[in-house]
């Protein structure tokens, strides 16, 4: 095994308690060394995703989705750092010193993608392999100094993308990018982005613009308006001062938008999205509400008469992540970052819950 000196103990933010009272204080935990097909990555920066907050606080328990024992209480799935140990079977692919990123799909045992099922072999949908493991959900995540990853499914970080930028792109960035693709909106067509100034929304504005879409950003207040316009939005609708958002979208677009990406995990966002579309338009569901009564869709008569499409989108494939990173390497997309440390997990979760976290949170791991 190729490696440098790796300590036996490390710091990690570890979940204690449950529900809304759960916390993730830093503790000393054991460093795991890689199996033959794995690599060990020293995490320099990790993003803090809304999904991490939901898992730490058991917000999806009603859906049967909760952190598993195998995580050892360590959340996180937006890690970027450097390879410090390489398993024997990965010597041909990775070497100590390579820059690498860990995303949602990450193993800790001897499988991630099985490589044999329909989803692994169709070339486009390995995220739905029934044998996959997920960082911070069914395997220990990136809220630790040293994290294990399957060398076959780890992202190589390109030059021109800093670690603090790459971390959030591992989930937030690729989620927004893949949602833009799922919208089927073509260059020159209109896409509406509610919550455009948020952690996912501000990524979506940039990717949509770079992909040639005409962006209508929806958010509240002059600061969000300035940010969205700076990032590439052609139009901005302030939901705090606009009484009829659907009418305003129609005024701008004549017939309604070609696509809407719902990043807000609220009943109101999902209920209003179909009303912003023209015939044949597409709603992309991205935000994951904790309220099990929230549904993505529209009354059947509206779906049928307007021939609307309702699709879901979750993170992205290996190829999607490489493509999302390339936009940053070419200077087209850059996350707006709120920087902290591993000790700030609880603080930033509270700010996220209060809606006061600007851009995307990224934590320095030391």
Give an account of the 3D structure.
The chain is α/β, with parallel strands linked by helices and about 375 residues long. The chain folds into 2 domains: about 10-170 and about 315-365, Medium-chain alcohol dehydrogenases, catalytic domain (Quinone Oxidoreductase, Chain A, domain 1, Alpha-Beta Complex), CATH 3.90.180.10; about 175-310, Rossmann fold, CATH 3.40.50. The chain is about 25% helix and about 25% strand. The chain is built from 10 helices and 16 strands. The chain has helices at about 50-55, 120, 165-180, 200-210, 220-230, 245-255, 265-270, 300-305, 320-330, 345-355, and strands spanning about 1-5, 10-15, 25-30, 40-50, 80-85, 100, 145-150, 155, 190-195, 215-220, 235-240, 255-260, 275-285, 310, 335-340, 360-365. Strand 12 (about 255-260), helix 7 (about 265-270) and strand 13 form a beta-alpha-beta unit. Helix 3 crosses helix 4 (about 200-210). The longest helix has 20 residues, at about 165-180.
- Major beta-sheet overview: 8 strands, mixed
Query: What does the radius of gyration come to?
Result: 20 Å
CATH topology of the largest domain: Quinone Oxidoreductase, Chain A, domain 1
Shape assignment: globular
Distance between the termini: 24 Å
Q: How many strand segments?
A: 16
Query: Total helix count?
Result: 10
Oligomer: single chain
Average pLDDT? 92
> At CATH's second level, what is the architecture of the largest domain?
Alpha-Beta Complex
CATH-assigned homologous superfamily of the largest domain: Medium-chain alcohol dehydrogenases, catalytic domain
Residues in helix, %: 25-40%
